[in-house]
Specification:
EC 2.7.1.2, ATPase_NBD, transferase, globular, ROK, 2 domains, Nucleotidyltransferase, domain 5, 5-stranded mixed β-sheet, 13 strands, Sugar kinase, ROK family
Length: about 350
């Protein structure tokens, strides 16, 4: 990683409009810098560390690295984060309005005032957003579509809704939590307390539990199913049916212009997209309603080399900075409102 700046309060020499985005994960942390045209002009990746202080230090180090790269590329002697905005995508329960993170289990965070702490350390506007929401914003970048639903097939299964380029949080922050819609109340128990949720059949954790003999499991399931292995065929039918149902729920309830699959499970590649489209097409042949939804034509998948988490965080941070110039994530009067949160969904 490029050596970090020693100070974040240097004289401003970078033009306004620089947007920084950081995607904090349980094992790695990635950062990007976007210029005024949304081009990635700097990138940094490093291992992530556990605990509040270590997460803050990781965020500061990655930010300094990005600013150093920009400084060197533009031939300036100094770089100031006061000319930039920062968005941070992080798993856990996130109150994006106040910059609070809690129950980020994979990072050993019980509760952390990440927004205010990062802003104080870096002297720039900071927005903290749930990592799936940030990834959704990044995945929808450049599509120029009014409504996009991003379905994250990570450790869990969740989704995020982008309407007119903005993240739709809902009244409580749980908008898009389709993974906890029960589709078979007599089936497997879910960690949420229900039975038969979509997440119990179509998430990364569920696939691994159903097929523990391979890691990652889905490519192996597909290969063995094509070879005619009966248990692999059964497992594959369960997974693909679950993902197709998630797509169908999104399509029927929100009627979006596009539905994008992302998350670790999609690293399986185009074969997964083809299988889900085939399942949706088959459903359309037996249901005029499903056929009218034309879901295969709306379905897309994130490319394996796209840095949607960090890019989306940068876009979210820039939007918040424009709405509330100079405002602290902690700025508030009166009683603290109920936070807008959503569960941890490591991509």
């Amino acid at each position: 990683m490029t050596e970090a700046l020693q100070s974040s309060k240097a004289t401003a020499t970078i033009k306004p409009g620089l947007r920084l985005g950081i995607d904090v994960g349980g094992t790695k942390i990635e950062g990007v810098a976007l210029d005024e045209s949304d081009r990635v002009v700097a990138f940094c990746r490093q291992d992530s560390h556990q605990g509040n202080q270590s997460v803050l230090e990781d965020v500061v180090n990655v930010t300094h690295s990005l600013l150093t790269q920009i400084r060197q590329a533009r031939g300036t002697d100094q770089a100031s984060p006061s000319t930039a905005s920062l968005g941070i995508g992080i798993p856990g329960l996130v109150d994006s309005a106040r910059g609070l993170v809690s129950e980020a289990v994979n990072l050993s965070i019980r509760r952390m005032d990440l927004g205010a702490q990062a802003q104080a350390a870096l002297n720039m506007p900071v927005l903290v957003e749930n990592d799936v929401n940030a990834a959704a914003l990044g995945a929808s970048q450049g599509l120029d579509l009014p409504c996009v639903v991003f379905i994250n097939l990570g450790t869990g299964l969740g989704s995020s809704i982008i309407q007119d380029g903005r993240i739709m949080h809902g009244a409580t922050g749980y908008a898009g939590e389709i993974g906890h819609i029960p589709v078979d109340s007599h089936s497997l128990p879910c960690k949420c307390g229900q039975h038969g949720c979509l997440e119990t059949v179509a998430s990364g954790a569920a696939i691994q539990a159903h097929w523990p003999q391979a890691d990652p499991p889905l490519p192996d399931i597909i290969e063995k199913a094509k070879a005619g292995q009966a248990d692999a065929r059964e497992a594959l039918n369960t997974v693909i049916s679950g993902i197709a149902t998630a797509v169908q729920i999104a399509g029927a309830t929100l009627d979006p212009d596009a539905i994008i699959l992302g998350g670790g499970v999609t690293k399986t590649g185009p074969a997964l997209l083809d299988l889900v489209k085939a399942e949706l097409t088959a459903r359309g042949k037996t249901s005029r309603f499903v056929s009218f939804l034309n879901l295969p034509a709306r379905l897309r998948m994130v490319g394996s080399n796209q840095r949607i988490g960090a890019v989306g965080a940068a876009l979210a941070g820039a939007a918040q900075s424009r709405q509330r110039p100079g405002a602290s994530p902690k700025a508030s009067h009166g009683p603290e409102p109920e936070p807008q949160i959503r569960p941890e969904q490591e991509p």
